[in-house]
């Protein structure tokens, strides 16, 4: 089992969800987060005063998958989260972490059975 953590642009969420659903990956947790990477923020003018916004709004997806779905999920996220053409700085990152165990609270199922539908 793996835990896939993806940081993406907020406007790409719907496309990512659609791509994952096409590959039979439906379960995920989505959080609003802010962060910075190579984009390093941007400068904005508010009421005549210029200030720098260093932390940009992003979405964090957490997806637990069985081994058979890892590559399909990564491929779906990469293709759906990338901005058209060749991509841009700020499109996001994907982290794949080992998942030791998973327990479905309602039934007590453990492991791969708890991840499945």
Keywords, separated by commas or semicolons:
single chain, 117 residues, alpha+beta, Alpha-Beta Plaits, four-stranded antiparallel β-sheet, two-stranded antiparallel sheet, 3 helices, 22% helix
The total beta strand count reads 6
Query: What does the radius of gyration come to?
Result: 17 Å
Strand content: 35-45%
Counting DSSP H or I runs of 4 or more residues, the number of helices is 3
Query: Which sequence of SSEs, written as H and E, runs from N to C?
Result: EHEEEEHEH
Query: According to CATH, what is the topology?
Result: Alpha-Beta Plaits
Instruction: Using the alpha-carbon principal axes, give the shape.
Output: elongated
How many structural domains?
1
Extract low-pLDDT stretches: none
Q: Overall pLDDT, averaged?
A: 90
Q: Which strand order do you get reading across the main beta sheet?
A: 2-5-1-6
Largest pleated sheet = 4 strands, antiparallel
Structural class designation: alpha+beta
Per CATH, the class reads Alpha Beta
Span between termini: 15 Å
Helix fraction by DSSP (H/I, runs of at least 4)? 10-25%
CATH architectural grouping: 2-Layer Sandwich
């Amino acid at each position: 089992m793996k835990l896939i953590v993806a940081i993406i642009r907020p406007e790409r969420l719907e496309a990512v969800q659609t791509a994952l659903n096409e590959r039979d990956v439906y379960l995920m947790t989505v959080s609003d987060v802010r962060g910075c990477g190579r984009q390093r923020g941007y400068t904005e003018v508010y009421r005549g005063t210029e200030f720098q916004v260093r932390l940009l709004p992003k979405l964090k997806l957490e997806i637990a998958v069985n081994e058979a779905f890892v590559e399909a999920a990564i491929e779906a996220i990469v293709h759906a989260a990338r901005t058209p053409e060749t991509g841009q700085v700020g499109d996001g990152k994907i982290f794949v972490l080992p998942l030791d165990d998973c327990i479905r609270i309602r039934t007590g199922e453990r492991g791969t059975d708890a991840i499945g539908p």
